[in-house]
Amino acid sequence: MKKSLLLIPLIIISCKKEPSVTETPSKDSAVVTEMPDSAVKADSAALRKKDSIINNAPVTKEVLRKGVMRSEKEGQIIRTADASQLPFTLGEEFTKDGQELVLKLTHYDKPTIKAKISTNQKDFNIRFNQIRLPNGDYDGPFGREITYETKGNGEVWLIIGKSNMASGNTKGSFNVSVD
């Protein structure tokens, strides 16, 4: 009996040891990590290339410094980029039904805009729904590729979402390349 009384404190002490827990982020959460200065410089060099890739990867910290902003509200993802960064490829993901992406290109001064949506999913229901021109006019719908004459200079919007005239998956990852 006395020996068992001596074991109780040992058991309690060993149970109090905190287990090492690693948290696995869910699909809806974002992970932010500090990068060493050399990684930031390498990412900056990649962004200065002719065809930059802008997405939600660790480069995001540097991309935000370059003027590409992202916000999300009620199923609408809004990405804003200065047209001086063109051409670039932007990575995005729809995680809920009915989401849309509004890509706002500020200071757009070219006579035409070319853009393309690419995805690895065969049944992904996605297209350019509309384009908003600098004068405020809208046009659309389009397919997964668009070449459009933009009359005037200013802000051009590319609105991307599902096609109501087609079926298929509305969740997944995709890239938008803009020239």
What order do the helices and strands come in, and which of them pair?
Layout: H1 2-15, H2 37-48, E1 52-54, H3 60-66, E2 69-73, E3 76-82, E4 88-94, E5 100-108, E6 112-118, E7 127-132, E8 138-139, E9 145-149, E10 154-161, E11 172-178
Parallel strand pairs: 1-4, 3-5
Antiparallel strand pairs: 2-3, 4-11, 5-10, 6-9, 6-11, 7-8, 7-10
Give a brief description.
With 179 residues, the protein is α+β, with helices and mostly antiparallel strands. It has three helices and eleven strands, in the order ααβαββββββββββ. It has a single domain, classed as Jelly Rolls.
Walk me through what this model shows.
It contains 3 helices and 11 strands, in the order H-H-E-H-E-E-E-E-E-E-E-E-E-E. Strand 2 and strand 3 form a beta hairpin. 18% of the residues lie in helices and 37% in strands. The chain starts with a helix and ends with a strand. It has a 6-stranded mixed sheet with strand order 2-3-5-10-7-8, with no helix packed on it. It has a 5-stranded mixed sheet with strand order 1-4-11-6-9. About 27% of the residues have low confidence. With 179 residues, it is of the alpha+beta class. It is elongated and about 90 Å long.
